[in-house]
Amino acid sequence: MHVTLGVVLVPVLLAKLWSVIPKLFTMPPARSVGHALERVSLLLLVGGALFEFVTGLLNVQLDYVFPGSFYPLHFYGAWVFIGAFAVHVALRMPRTVRALRERTDPQAADDETGLVALRPAAPTVSRRGALGLVGAGSLLLFLTTAGQSLGGRWRRTALLAPHGGADPGGGPNGFQINKSAAGVGIRARDIGDGWRLTVEGGGRRVRLSRAELLRLPQYEAALPIACVEGWSTEDLRWSGVRLRDLAALVGSGGAPPGVLVESLQLSGAFRRAALRDNQVRDPRSLLALRVGGADLSPDHGYPARIIVPAAPGVLNTKWVARLTFGEV
Questions:
Q1: Co-location of 130 and 18 in the same domain
Q2: How far apart are CA 111 and CA 132, in angstroms?
Q3: Residue 95: helix, strand or coil by DSSP?
Q4: pLDDT digits (tens, 9 = 90+) for 86-135
Q5: Alpha-carbon distance 199 to 325, whole Å?
Q6: Taking every annotated instance into account, which residue ranges of this chain make up the domain Oxidoreductase molybdopterin-binding (predicted)?
Q7: What is the pLDDT of residues 209-268, one digit of tens each?
Q8: Into how many domains does the chain fold?
Q9: In a domain, 161, yes or no
Q10: What is the domain extent for residue 252?
Q11: Which one, of 209, 274, 283, 295, lies nearest residue 241 by Cα?
Q12: Is there a domain that residue 53 lies in?
């Protein structure tokens, strides 16, 4: 819902910026302290909105070109926008209330705010037409994006969503992926019989093959994957070894600590993930070996992946190679 709404609002954002372009270039930049504060809030408001939309769209399209991790950048960008929005509304509120009380003529109000062109050309579209154009643009974006989340035959309409129209196939492994094993450089020999999971913590280290992991107590959990790139699954039936049991295996007595999860993936946003101690303690948190009664497919993280409740898909690391307890 968050991603679909963000995409749908792109025409609204562009129309809003287009409508106030003259205000963005008012000279002199500041006529008083109050006006200077208003201009600064406007700068942060517009900059924050553009930053949120641009980074969000890049992330949805799996283009990780921004410095650092998308998640904290997007999060703090949202706080900048919300703070600037609150300040801007507070500074503009007296003028807004006065205009509403006086029921100022719209043309005169536009003259006062400086939004009327000095030498206007002949109009090419009415205000109603402009609003209709924005609405039609948003509707088109909705129709070409939402199908990724609706699933089924609607996926074919998700032309603007990454892999939105791709058929994930059937069977237990028939759900969406962001990156395939081949796409991140995972080779068959990397996940073959020679694969070993390294588990460290409390000064101890053990290395386990997949067969040895399967001999440990197995548990099931019904959990979805909710990906910040704009898609989610229904509850899937996962089975594997509890993370807290793996913590106990290396002598982490008492409450299990947090864990640093490392993937065979050599680079990218999903190579490492940190899970907190409460996530490790949760009995539904698994090093999953199977899904829906079948072995994980290579694209879904074979030989082992993380699955934890109430966490974004980025924390459900695939192709796990190392678990280091106590590193968080």
A1: yes
A2: 25
A3: helix
A4: 998 998 888 888 878 776 555 555 555 556 667 777 878 888 999 999 99
A5: 8
A6: 193-325
A7: 999 999 999 999 999 998 877 778 889 999 999 999 999 999 865 667 899 999 998 655
A8: 2
A9: no
A10: 182-325
A11: 283
A12: yes
